[in-house]
Input
Amino acid sequence: MILVTTDELVGKQYTELGICKGNTIQSVHVGKDIMNSFKTLVGGELTSYNEMMTDAREIATGRMVDDAKNMGADAIICVRYTTNSITQGAAEILAYGTAVKFI
Output
């Protein structure tokens, strides 16, 4: 599956199948969440949140690809990600794009 953030695939002819998407809501362990609260007092990188968001992006991307495959797609163009805080220590990642089929 080809994934691109561009509006088109240069040199390829295709038909658009529609919007494909995938999302997940992830959280960190309550102990890590408490430790991150203390870390915000002194500053620095919150590595457990970085790991959580990286995992969430991978899961959302995989679900978006699965959605596109179910539509019969060969590629996804205009791939975008959005995130939303659900609660302290939990976030949603939504991956979406346009599923296309090569002609």
Observations:
- The chain has one domain: 2-102.
